[in-house]
Amino acid sequence: MKHISLASLDVGRIGLGCMGMSAFYSGAGTDDAESIRTIHRAMDLGVTLFDTAEMYGPYINEELLGKALAERRDEVVIATKFGTILHRGDGTRGLDGSAENVRIAVEGSLKRLGTDRIDLYYQHRMDPDTPIEETVGALAELVNEGKIIGYGLSEAAPDTIRRAHAVHPVTAVQTEYSLWSRDPEAEILPTLRELGIGFVPYSPLGRGFLTGAIRSVDSLDADDFRRANPRFEGDNLEANLAIVDSVQAVADEIGGTPAQVALAWILAQGDDIAPIPGTKRVARLEENVAADAIDLTDAQLDALSSVPSAAGDRYADMTPLNR
Ligand SMILES: NC(=O)c1ccc[n+]([C@@H]2O[C@H](COP(=O)([O-])OP(=O)(O)OC[C@H]3O[C@@H](n4cnc5c(N)ncnc54)[C@H](OP(=O)(O)O)[C@@H]3O)[C@@H](O)[C@H]2O)c1
């Protein structure tokens, strides 16, 4: 596995998103043994960056990752997230970037992950009622105390990233980025490159859609998040299948799979980018990690870069994003 740097944090350039093992997608929580095998196989294949969040489950995904990593903590980079659970209130979902909430949240995550430090601690969504300077001030204290090594922001606007970076250097920004979610290219990526901040694309497989494995929502569990996602709805889904067909065409050319092509395209966008494809299955993990060895030609990259824009918003409610 090739390595890259997110600011000063060294990571294998393909990480593993652990969310779907415990939350949001079909089959979550049904086979923890296979999820743990997937995490172990990832480590054996050179994956170092493991991504979770306190709100995945909530909590059970951090516990699962902590259990899986217990014997090999020092080999990995643990990334988790805070800010979308109201620890000062009743523990339900909501945005709280206050210093007090940060301090309560980090203690819970450290305990569930079974570690004395979190390598990359992201604010999951920006809190419009708390100045980013207060949140980052609390994070800087956690760095000084050794409880976190660095911090990141997820779905933050360029101005917020700049304000945060002025208080304490940001290690990485995590935002949705893939062949059907190109919006970070306009302002986010140039801002990160100017400031020397790493970029972690989430949902790099388009929440599974770009792999070609989901051609209708009929196969998804009744509570699967994607059933209510605009891009998976009716006419939007039908239109978006043209994107999958373009990815499949390149996959056929190289004798690979659409998932590998979608990841190889992201990896070709820069050496400051570490996507975190999610899977809870060993076979798919092996397939995805093999994208590290794929170099697409300029013609293939151009063809992929010109796929049609996705039909439908990334989320049913876009309000909490890009703030
Ligand atoms: N910061 C944020 O707000 C945010 C939001 C969403 C996600 N994330 C993070 O990003 C990670 C990845 O994103 P994601 O899980 O949403 O989407 P993704 O990586 O784009 O796609 C994951 C989906 O694709 C399926 N899949 C994976 N590899 C496959 C393959 N080779 N062939 C066919 N299907 C395949 C998975 O199913 P199986 O698991 O059944 O294999 C899963 O349903 C998450 O785990 C999470 O850590 C962060």
TrEMBL record:
The keyword Oxidoreductase applies. Transmembrane segments: none annotated. GO terms for molecular function: oxidoreductase activity. Residues 14-306 form the NADP-dependent oxidoreductase domain. It comes from the Bacteria. Keywords: Oxidoreductase. InterPro entries: Aldo-Keto_reductase, NAD(P)_OxRdtase_dom_sf, NADP_OxRdtase_dom. PANTHER family: AFLATOXIN B1 ALDEHYDE REDUCTASE (PTHR43625), ALDO-KETO REDUCTASE YAKC [NADP(+)] (PTHR43625:SF40). This is Aldo/keto reductase. It comes from Orlajensenia flava. The lineage of its organism: Bacteria, Bacillati, Actinomycetota, Actinomycetes, Micrococcales.
